[in-house]
Amino acid sequence: MTARNWAYALPALAVVGGAVAGMPTANADNKRLNDSVVANVYTMQHQAGCTTDIKINPKLRLAAQWHTDDVLNNRALNGDIGSDGSTVADRARNAGYAGAVSETTAINPALAISGIELINQWYHRPDYNAIMSNCANVDIGVWSANLIDRTVVVAVYGTGDGAPPVQSPGRPFGTPGAGAPG
């Protein structure tokens, strides 16, 4: 390229570069994925003959979030034990859940995972299939998070919570705000 061509190309590159630099970063909203996990577990339970409806529990979702964030940011972790040695029971108890719990964890070496890929992984693991199909699990909390090269999904299942609700600031996750349609 001649000096004259560079003189024309540089302003164009500056405009394009400025436009790209000014673009907002993507913030993944994994609510759809998390909700699909709950729906797929519901389906598995009903195919197994369960007559109860599994429901989202904010305490279990918090326990799932803690472990998701821990696994996402500590690449040496690959299962149910946290970097501090905590178990799913420890995390659920620390979140205020008083029932028996179990957990399924997925680590995908990519930016994203589809609900179909995820449930397929868990379905074909006998231990995870047994957890998801267990009719005693009436509560669930799901959390997922992504890095550019890693996605982690954690579902925590509970057999019923005898503890009182945990007080938290702001409105509970998933509820409409003031003035929003209910």
Automatic annotation (TrEMBL):
<dbReference type="InterPro" id="IPR035940">
    <property type="entry name" value="CAP_sf"/>
</dbReference>
<feature type="signal peptide">
    <location>
        <begin position="1"/>
        <end position="28"/>
    </location>
</feature>
<protein>
    <recommendedName>
        <fullName>SCP domain-containing protein</fullName>
    </recommendedName>
</protein>
<keyword id="KW-0732">Signal</keyword>
